[in-house]
Amino acid sequence: MPLETGDPMTQPGDGATTAFVWSPDLPRYDFGPGHPMAPVRLSLTRDLVDALDLPGVREIGVAAVDDALLATVHEPAFIEAVRAGAQGVPDEARGLGNEENPLFAEIHVAARRIVGSTLAAARSVWTSQVPHAVSIAGGMHHAMPDRASGFCVYNDVAVAIRWLLDNGAERVAYVDLDAHHGDGVEQMFWNDPRVLTISVHESGTTLFPGTGFASDVGGPDAPGTAVNIALPARTGGAGWLRAVEAVVPPLLAEFAPDVLVSQHGADTHGDDQLTNLRVSVDHQLAAARLVRDLAREHAGDRWIATGGGGYTVVEVVPRVWAGLTAISAGVDIDPAAPLPPSWRARVEEELRVPAPEIWGDGGEGGGDFVPFAQGYDPDDAVDRAILATRNAVFPLNGIDPLY
C-alpha cells in the first residue's frame, strides 16, 4: 500500500479506488492505561492493511482543521473548554475530565486530528479523487455540540457531513452500525431534511447512551430522516444483519443520497467487553459489503467509511476495519482465509498475546441470515424491533412498511 506524501488533497494515485487516511500521530488520542479505547487498535489495523498490500488502496494524510471548522457543529464555548482541558482544567458539565473522557495534554489537538482524518476522507471522495475512503480513527459519533460523551470529544462524522453540505452535496445519508446509538450525529442533523441518519444498535434500555428508539424519527422540518433500529441485547449476527437489510436498502433507494457516510463500530462483536450483542466478524464484514454495494447503487458510488467503537482491540477490531478497507477496494475477504503471517508474528512478538489466525470467526461468512421480505415472525424480538422501525419511518418516506 504505497504511502502518499504531501497535502492530503493530493490525487491518491492512478488506479486508486480507496483512500486510507493515516498519520502516525492518530494513536495519540489516548485516554491513558486501562481505558477501553486503547489506541493500539488503530496501529494494529493500519499494520494489517499494510500487510495485505491491497491493490487500489492509497494512504493519504490528515487534513488540517481549525477551530472555525469545528465550530460548524460545536459551540465555541465547548471548544474553549477542550483547550482548557489540555491544560488540566476539567469541566464536568461539558463531559471533560470524567471517567469516560479523562483529560490529557493533547486532548484538543488529538481530537481535532481525528476530525482531520474523516475530513480528508470526505474531501477525497467529494472531489472525485477516489470513489471510496476509509478513516479508521473516525466515527466519534457521541460527541455533542456542547459536550464530550462516550469517549468522543469532537464529532468528526458531523463535521465531515457539514463540510459535504457546505460544498455542494444536496443529500447525505449516514448509516451507523456501532453497538451504541449514534446520538451525536443524529442530534446535529435532527431537523435537517438533507441528512438521513440510520442507526442500528443495541436498545437504549440496556446500553449507553439510553436513546435511539423507533419513535425517534426527526424534527418537524425533517420527519422520517432520523431512523433507529433498537435491537434487544444478545441479538446474534444473523438477526443483526437481517435488521440492517430490512431497513437500510429501502430507505437509501428512496432518499437517493449524493454520498453515503458509514460508521463501522466493531463493538457489536460477542467478545466486546462493553456491549451485549453477539455479532461475528463474518457478519460485520457482510454488512460492509452490503453498504459498499448500496453506495454503488444509490449514492453514485461515493462512500466514506469510518471506524468507531470496538474494545476487543487485538482479536476483533483489526480484522473488522482492515476487512472494511479491503471491501472498500473491491476485495471481498474470505472469512476462512488465514491472516498474513507477518502481521500475526508482529502481534505475538510485540504484544505477547495470541493473534487470531483467520479473518472470520468460523461461521457461515455472514450468509446465514434470512431476508425480512421472506416473512415476519411476531414471536421474534428482532423482527418486532424491525417492524417497529419500519412502521415509524417508512410511511414518512413514502414506503410501504409491509412491502
From TrEMBL:
Pfam families hit by this protein: Hist_deacetyl
Molecular function as annotated in GO: histone deacetylase activity
InterPro entries cross-referenced by the UniProt entry: AcuC (IPR003085), HDACs (IPR000286), His_deacetylse_dom (IPR023801), His_deacetylse_dom_sf (IPR037138), Ureohydrolase_dom_sf (IPR023696)
Keywords: Acetoin catabolism
Coiled coil regions, renumbered to chain: none
Residue stretches making up the Histone deacetylase domain: 35-326
Gene Ontology BP annotations: acetoin catabolic process; epigenetic regulation of gene expression
Superkingdom of the source species: Bacteria
Cross-referenced SUPFAM superfamilies: Arginase/deacetylase
Pathway linked to the protein: Ketone degradation; acetoin degradation
Membership in a protein family: Belongs to the histone deacetylase family.
Protein name: Acetoin utilization protein AcuC
Origin species: Serinibacter arcticus
